[in-house]
């Protein structure tokens, strides 16, 4: 059985797609999609030998080798331009996901959907998408086994009528606060419009983390720590205001 997180990613892969799952580990996602007859072809990419071998074994054991190709390589280097329609990258940091997309930009021509699930640093992913003319079409948030995950789905600007101007348009949040592009890159433009209890929990936990860092900085007499403390205080104030407005 797939985790709820991977199931939510799987649900979004259009039936009949050719997909690549980058950082596939045990190739659970492509195996599930292939078993269900939901993809016509899949590439499971892995940069590390151990997970690559685990993926290869999984595909062999499930007799899915005619659909899933397991390849060893860094990021999008494992695919050719035009080879797949959908790319999933899940279970790593947002900065790493953005680095993988940046390094493999030339492989994205012809790709019609990215489904990205950063564990942390979602804003790096949103920023990369925005700067490269990919439009966020959906954001989901879920809690599983005590962890909170976001799933970001994007399509190329030329394939959708939704524009990034519209997605990140400054909008009023609750009473009184205007969410600008910067705030939405952090909190999620869609998540912010329909904040769920999991989203509130995520940002409350984030505030706790920031408070801990602020407390540590407060013990230092370095000038540098003072300015970092001020930045964190401003960030906490902003998040608190948004949460208070929406609750
Ligand atoms: N995608 C699966 C999931 O969401 O359950 C596995 C996530 S696992 C925590 C992250 C995987 O990404 C690891 O197996 C790691 O080897 C792989 N990885 C990290 N950097 C990578 C890169 N640059 N290219 C391909 N795979 C990478």
Automatic annotation (TrEMBL):
- According to its UniProt record, what is one Pfam family this protein matches? TrmK
Name any one GO molecular function: tRNA (adenine(22)-N1)-methyltransferase activity
In Swiss-Prot or TrEMBL terms, this protein is called: tRNA (Adenine-N(1))-methyltransferase
What species was this sequence derived from?
Paenibacillus foliorum
């Amino acid at each position: 059985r797939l985790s709820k997180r991977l199931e939510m990613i799987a649900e979004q892969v259009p039936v009949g797609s050719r997909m690549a799952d980058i950082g596939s580990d045990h190739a659970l996602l492509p195996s599930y999609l292939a078993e269900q007859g939901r993809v016509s072809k899949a590439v499971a990419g892995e940069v590390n030998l151990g997970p690559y071998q685990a993926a290869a074994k999984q595909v062999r054991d499930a007799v899915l080798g005619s659909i899933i190709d397991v390849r060893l390589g860094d990021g999008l280097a494992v695919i050719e331009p035009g080879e797949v329609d959908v790319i999933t990258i899940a279970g790593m940091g947002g900065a790493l996901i953005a680095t993988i997309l940046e390094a493999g930009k030339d492989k994205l021509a012809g790709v019609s959907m990215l489904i990205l699930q950063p564990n942390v640093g979602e804003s790096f992913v949103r920023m990369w998408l925005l700067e490269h003319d990919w439009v966020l079409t959906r954001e989901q948030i879920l809690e599983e086994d005590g962890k909170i995950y976001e799933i970001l789905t994007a399509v190329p600007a030329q394939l959708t009528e939704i524009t990034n101007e519209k997605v990140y348009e400054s909008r009023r949040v609750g009473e009184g606060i205007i969410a600008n592009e910067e705030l939405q890159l952090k909190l999620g433009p869609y998540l912010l419009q329909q904040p769920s209890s999991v989203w509130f929990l995520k940002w409350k936990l984030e505030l706790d983390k920031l408070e801990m860092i602020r407390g540590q900085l407060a013990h230092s007499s370095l000038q540098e720590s003072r300015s970092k403390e001020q930045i964190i205080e401003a960030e906490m104030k902003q998040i608190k205001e948004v949460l208070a407005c929406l609750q």
